[in-house]
Amino acid sequence: MLVSPQPNVTRGVQVHGFHPSTATESEVSTILEHIYRDKIVLLKEQELDHDEFVALGALLGSPAVYYESMYHLPGHPKIFVSSNQPSGGSRIGVPKTGKFWHSDYQFMPDPFAITLIYPQILPERNRGTYFIDMGEAFQDLDPRIKDVVVLSNSWHSSRRYVKIRPSDVYRPLGEIVAEVEANTPPQMRPTVIEHPVTGEAVLYISEAFTYAIEDRDGDALPAELLTELFRTSGQLDSTFTHPSIFLQTYEPGDILLWDNRSLVHRALHTSSNEPVESHRITVHDGHPLNWVRHAGVDRGEAAVK
Ligand code: 7UC
Ligand code: FE
């Protein structure tokens, strides 16, 4: 196994010669270490079938089953499918997923630790994933804003990005909205979380899922503060030229692994109707995002609930 810096991306490492079925424990822990420290790991020259892809996920954590079954690969519920491909009369997966800044499952009680993406059909152009490092985004904040956000909580919901299912046709929108709120109630977390593995302070917000911010007493903070945090971190830049945004592209045989706690991402979808399909596995690593504030920025006060 050979780990080296990525040649074309400023971030992360690439790995040649990693074979999930015969990997040693020390190779797996090296990969995990790079995911947590470098945040992006690109496995090269992979040729895995669906079961082998799930087994790769199981080496890195415990693979989750996405809560909405319309995303599942039939027969492999741990594989989430983003695809514009018709399949007979029905279709598999969901087209154009994740075209907004977010972190996977940020709106859930137990967000994923690591995301794995294995492109199956790559378009000629315009296929990749944009990323922003929200640990760096926290460090880059104006000290006065830092002081406010470390003592704040934020609210997350998937409501603006939940997709209706074919079976929802002719249902009243109000009923669907009520169902979304009941199935995925809003989650509140410290705006600055401590990464449970690296200890890094992370500005834990995304433009897609974070919708409100409040002080430690539960009193609302101005919506402009949240907008300012999105703006300075790069999440409002429609030109994708903000210096914090980096683009990860894919070649056939690539599997991308990333630290889903400290990075936010946004899919870049092809503008043409070319076929695209990508498989995803997300894993938990046994370190839930607890109600922990970053000790180093909490001025020695006891962790606040
Ligand atoms: O269809 C999608 O873009 C799925 C999105 C709302 N959730 C992905 C996730 O895991 O958080
Ligand atoms: Fe995503």
Description:
With 305 residues, the protein is an alpha+beta fold. It has a single domain (2-303), classed as Clavaminate synthase-like (Double-stranded beta-helix, 4-Layer Sandwich). It has six helices and 19 strands. It has helices at residues 25-38, 50-60, 134-139, 143-149, 173-183, 223-233, and strands spanning 2-5, 13-16, 40-43, 62-63, 72-73, 76-83, 86-87, 90-91, 114-121, 128-133, 152-156, 187-190, 192-194, 201-203, 210-215, 246-249, 255-259, 263-268, 277-284. The strands form five sheets. Strands 1, 2, 3, 4, 5, 6, 9, 17 and 19 form a nine-stranded mixed β-sheet that branches. Strands 16-10-18 form a three-stranded antiparallel β-sheet. It has a three-stranded antiparallel β-sheet with strand order 12-11-15. The radius of gyration is 19 Å and the shape is globular. The site of fe (iii) ion has 4 residues, from loops.
Detail the topology: elements first, then pairings:
Blueprint: E1 2-5, E2 13-16, H1 25-38, E3 40-43, H2 50-60, E4 62-63, E5 72-73, E6 76-83, E7 86-87, E8 90-91, E9 114-121, E10 128-133, H3 134-139, H4 143-149, E11 152-156, H5 173-183, E12 187-190, E13 192-194, E14 201-203, E15 210-215, H6 223-233, E16 246-249, E17 255-259, E18 263-268, E19 277-284
Parallel strand pairs: 2-3
Antiparallel strand pairs: 1-2, 3-17, 4-19, 5-6, 6-19, 7-8, 9-17, 9-19, 10-16, 10-18, 11-12, 11-15, 13-14
The chain binds (3~{R})-3-(2-hydroxy-2-oxoethylamino)butanoic acid and fe (iii) ion.
